[in-house]
Amino acid sequence: MDAKGNIMRILMPIAAACALTAISIITAHAHASLEKREASPGSYKAVLKIPHGCDGQATHTVRLQIPEGYIGVKPMPKPGWTIATAKGDYARKYDLHGEEVASGVTEVTWSGGELPDDFYDEFTVSGTLAGVEAGQTLFFKATQLCADGEVAWTEEPTEGQDPHSLEYPAPMLKIAAAGGGHEGHGAHGDAPVAIGDLEISGQWARAMLPGQPAGGGYMTISNKGSEPDRLVSITSAAAGRAEIHSMEVVDGVMVMRPAAGGLEIPAGATVELKPGGLHLMFMEVAERFEEGASVPLTREFEKAGKVALTLPVKAASGGGDHSNH
After folding, report:
1. Cα distance between residue 271 and residue 96, in whole Å
2. From the candidate CATH numbers 1.10.287.990, 2.60.40.2230, 3.40.50.11030, 2.30.30.30, the one assigned to the domain spanning 31-175
3. Which among 96, 146, 173, 287 is placed 20 to 30 Å from 114, CA to CA?
4. pLDDT above 70 covers what percent of the chain?
């Protein structure tokens, strides 16, 4: 055999080994996962992605365990699949849209379908993240069943262990601070926050001038549900008192007053709190709001419940609310 033939004889096994290694790496990284792997407390749609079958066989059943802290769960109908749910008691009681709940869906099973090994599919449930804290991790353990076997994505990393080192890691969700939860981005205080049927967006506070007695806050609240809700109270660690104020012209004079009975958010409507109109008023402020800082705020809605927000402080210029007077 000539030199060229010897070289080919040596290189072919190496190339084959490299190809197998590449395939192994691809397979090892094809784990079950959640489409959105970071979210803030409040409404959350969990989309479970199943990447393949069981050693070449099609998946006919997918079972998802619901972690503690994810409540009021409802699965999304999936054509070609039958859905079953198991219910049980939570480890504690939660406030869900103003109602105390102690039990709910703890497991969802999709069966009777067929997911070929060469394809992937998504399985969706919707619920609320409650009683969870920023930095906490929830594990959405899942099992897929095939004709002659199963794949259980149920492994949790030990303290300090890299989750990528696990062979069958459970899909993970990291809890972000309120106002965060956007995968691939930082936790921005003015990012949209969902709670129940409500979505809060564009939240910010105005920087206060030296000697200014009160501060103003603004945001947009959209009600995507079929029933009205009401903002009943607001509190902030940055102020002794916080209220919802309205402004209107009466006999040619600008008059401001607290919104009596709270602020109604009609079904299917959007209410904007902005300079010169409805807005938040922070009184008895310990330290004036300075641009670049943030203001913590807790809002309680009649039906959606409580939500914690962080309002980034922006420049004092512009607007017409009385907080700058």
Report:
1. 23
2. 2.60.40.2230
3. 173
4. 80
Report whether CATH 1.10.760.10 matches the domain 193-324. no
In the three-class reduction of DSSP (H, G, I as helix; E, B as strand; rest coil), residue 14 is classed as helix
User: What tokens were used for 261?
Assistant: 């009975």
Between strands 38-39 and 172-175, the pairing is: parallel
Q: How far apart are CA 82 and CA 323, in angstroms?
A: 57
DSSP 320: -
Q: What is the pLDDT of residue 249?
A: 57
Give the residue-averaged pLDDT of 68-93. Answer: 94
DSSP 160: T
Of 126, 120, 109, nearest to 36 by C-alpha is 126
Token pair for residue 147? Answer: 């004709």
pTM check: above 0.90? no
pLDDT digits (tens, 9 = 90+) for 242-263: 999 876 656 666 566 677 778 9
Residue 20 CA: distances (Å) to CA of 25, 162, 175: 9, 24, 37
